[in-house]
Amino acid sequence: MNLYRMRRGATWKQFMMAAAENPTCPVKGCHKPADECQVHHIFSWAGGGWTNAKNLTTACAYHNGRNDDHRIGPPRNGRFERTARGVRWVNPWDPPPPDLVETGPTT
């Protein structure tokens, strides 16, 4: 289910797909259940990200608020990234994952 740039908000089906992939907030140690989470654009909507299943994840309000939407350079507070193994939270002190999968538009 892909909406590209037609709509910012995720549909119920997109939420259910994100919740199936991440039944809790993807941050290690955070156990907030998906039904209490928000839908988050991994590559930010403001930065040109699409409302597509591969670009969405669940995130608790705290980690969604801490996320760095600016994707140039290392994260200041942390950010979500999609890898070949799924969505992960990258702390500012973590090295970049070798299997990073780009989720934003390619232009």
From TrEMBL:
Domain HNH nuclease: from-to ranges: 11-65
Gene3D superfamilies: 1.10.30.50
Keyword Hydrolase (UniProt): yes
Keyword check for Iron-sulfur: no
Species of origin: Corynebacterium curieae
GO terms of molecular function: endonuclease activity
Sorted UniProt keywords: Endonuclease, Hydrolase, Nuclease
Record's protein name: HNH endonuclease
Region (Disordered): 88-107
